[in-house]
Amino acid sequence: MSLRRLWVAVASAGIGFAVAGAAGGQPAPKAEPDAAKGGAGAKGKPTDRESRLAARRDSRLNEEVAAVFKAADTTYLVGDVARATEQFRKVLAMAPASNYTVRAMARLGDCAYELKKYDEAAALYRRAASAATDEVTDEAEVATGVRADYMVGQAYLVAKNYTTCFGAFRKFIDRHPGHPLVNMAYQSIGDGHLGLEQYQQALSAYRMVGTVAKERTAAMTRVTPGGRLYLRVTDADVNVGETPRTVRAIARTSGGDEETVELEPMGLRNPVFLGTIPTALSDPRKSGDLEKVFTEAQAAEVRQALADARAKVKAAAEKRQEAAEVERSAEKITNPAGAEKKRAALVAEAEALEGTAKAGMTAACARVDQAMGALEKIVEAWAPEQSVKALAKTARTVKPTTAPAAPATPGGEGDPGVRAALAGTLPTPDDVVGKDEVATAGMPAAGLSESDVDKVRLEAAAKATGPETVDARLTAVSVWARLLKRQFQRLELTGKDTVEIEYVDEVGPKGPQRVIRKDSLTVASDAVIGLYTRDGAERVVQVVLGGDVLLRVEDLDRDLTGGADAVTVTLAALPKVDTRAADLKQETRPATQPTTQRSTPGEVSAEESAAAAGAAKVLPLAPEGMPSVTVELRETGPHTGVFEAVVKTSATGLAHGGKTLPLAPGAQLRLAYKDASAVRHADGWVLALTAECLPDAGGEALAVQFGQTYLDLQAKLKRAAAAGEMGKIYLELGLVKRGKEYLRSAQTDCNEVARAASKTPLGEEALHHSWQIYFYAGLLDEAAQAARALVSAYPQSDYVPDALLAIGQVSLQQGERQVEQDKASGQKTAMNRELQRAVSQFEELVRRYPRGGRAPEALFMVGKAKQLAGQTGLDTFERLAKQFPDSAFAARGLAQVGDYYLGIGDFGRAQDYFGRILIDYPDSPDLGAVTLSRGVCQWKTGQIADALASLYKVAEEHPGTKLAADARRHINTINQARGVGGGGGAAPGAAAAPGSGAAAPVMKKE
């Protein structure tokens, strides 16, 4: 994307390029006096005349350099990049160490960026950043150096060299931790991960956007109910070890709520910690009460008590077995008294163990029942619709089904919500929760869903916990406590509340010191006003006289009590506006002056900021001389923040509160509201909007049947494609309910277009999207059926390779499922029918379309199918690399071969394959894992120096990831074997950890 189109002038952050004149900035370096010319300068100190001449030459040179740079910059701004490049090079040739060196170098990088020479642009940006050393004091040069350092990563990002761009952005963040461009660096990191379809990493990066602020603004001291409150703590004493630690902050409201927020470090040995908590407009509710009821530590204690009780039962059984053996032994005949005494002692010991075990088991069951009962009380008070009574009532009204239930994998095949969505029915309230969301110690590998927990709750309400049910209920109550914590941990606010943030510094150079740092926030929100129809369903821009108008104000900070509050608005009558005069004024308005400087994408110009500040004037509630009435709006319910009132109009005006507001056709009705406290505007900001008044002209009724044109069907299909992709993303992110809704809508539209536009290119495309949507939802049989329909109806379609690949993928997944079932039943894995079918289908695709884009992926899938069947698949991966050497799947296939040899201990051959990937496929997204594996192979073959270099490279380029952790673990092992301590630290030459000290927490409102 062109910088000229995307970039705008620099914002108030002060990043950009301000062209200094001859008198601006610092002068160019003074030339040394020529000693060969003789005079006093030859003997030592120059004369006054020589000094004046040298100063005059420096000034003239500085003026010439400034003029050339200004001309070059103007040339670049108007789009003549090639000529601008020559002029910027001339600036560097004229004065290699002037006040324009960094700016000229960075502009050369911009020119290369415009010409899409991204590697050259990155090198020029890097040189410009290096030239901005500590000796440079010119503010424009320093700012340019920072921006150039950022643009190194931006150039690699646009070139889709994601691995290198991540490293560049991470280094920029480390070098400039408080600079506003750090926010854009996180944004770019998120874009890179999104391009790689690494959605979790993208979300992590996007959450960091906005957490860095150069200076604290008034908006950062205000929080809007319903948004998220972001907290930042800087404490260099905490995160100084190999394992990142977290800190905690306490948020207290004047209304009585108190929540503890855990803040995560931004990276390894990073002194900045970030955390977030949702807020809501509601009465105070302390989620910390849930931790008082049941925690993971208490669950571990109960599990240990159960284990001890079962161990004692087992020991008692062994004692009784010993007593029985004594009864049958020869000693019973030779020494009856002694044998009886020994037997009685063993029986007594067994009885004592059984009694202790029974008491421990009873106590553990009681603790589970007690925890579940306490949680039930909290739920009944905070969310009565989720109480066990409501669940029991719902269970009685639901009719059982006789159909067999498929495994309920979230978002996959067998998910009842997805099947119901695609069948055209609404999803059930029981939204499935993935195992990653509720997994905890002691749980089954598959995890528990919310409906599973509800079933256990219903059973517990009917029958007390016993030895046979204690394990399942303990797991359920542990999962339930975590679900409730996540659901109810939020900060409840009202408009009159203030929020106090407290951070307790427990780590310091002198040991734990409870030094409390505090910060405070106020509650504020931006109000929204509107005129609506009587039912409130639609906003109106014209008022029909004789009808009803709904006045609505949404202002969360005016919710002050637990009841319905009230606000006041003003209605004014304005005369008819001559739109022709307004249009003429708009046409004669002078055009906006073009920007003279550009900066990084996403920033706004200083001119725009100044214009916005000038436009922020407080309007009157009612224009001077215009009739008006005031109307009181009542809140729609407790803690809604929405205020409404209905006013009635007539053909002559509006009457309210004993006053009449005259209105006539053509006049305007003006609604004005004073927002006493806002986030983006000054206090007392007045919001106003107008609606034209129209007479009631009646109407007529017509019966018209509309047909679906080709354009209608085309738009519907594009809408379906977009909805399908959104549903896929939501399912991958674990947002099952929302994903199901998108997939349901997309599938309905696809089916309709496929029927209405059969035997046309549009119907062909509809079938293509149809099987894709089924595949996204995990409905494999339906996806294969839709793909076969496409191949049958459109055998010459360009989508046939994609359809054949999808059919093979369905067979592959079904074959994989059969392999897992065989393993679970103890059978040997083999090439089952589905895997054979998948191999045949993939090979057919490669045979029919050997030069198609899907052939490499199909061949890679053949190798995966052979691996699932217990084979190596090496021949297939070698064939893939030979037949399709330029494909990204060739690198993945070679990585599979290398992993195989690494697994069997053939480190030399594995190293050859990993090295081949690094040389032939430098843009592979798996480069980090390949480098790590090669480092392990080098270590195992005795190449210690090369191994350490590879492992350090992984640790530095992938900070905070599992790859970096594995690399440091191997580094520690190697250094311990060599007798070197502290192997897990940074590579030689890395910067030391920042010093101790902390600053007050800084809050950021979303």
What structural keywords apply?
Immunoglobulin-like; eight-stranded mixed beta sheet; disordered C terminus; 1006 residues
Question: What features would you describe in this structure?
Answer:
- With 1006 residues, the chain is an alpha+beta fold.
- It contains 34 helices and 19 strands.
- The strands form three sheets. Strands 1, 2, 3, 4, 5, 6, 7, 8 and 19 form a nine-stranded mixed sheet that branches.
- A hairpin with a 2-residue loop joins strand 15 (653-656) and strand 16 (659-662).
- Helix 32 runs parallel beside helix 34 (962-978).
- The longest helix is centred in the middle third of the chain and has 47 residues, at 336-382.
- The radius of gyration is 36 Å and the shape is globular.
Task: Summarize this structure briefly.
The chain is of the alpha+beta class and 1006 residues long.
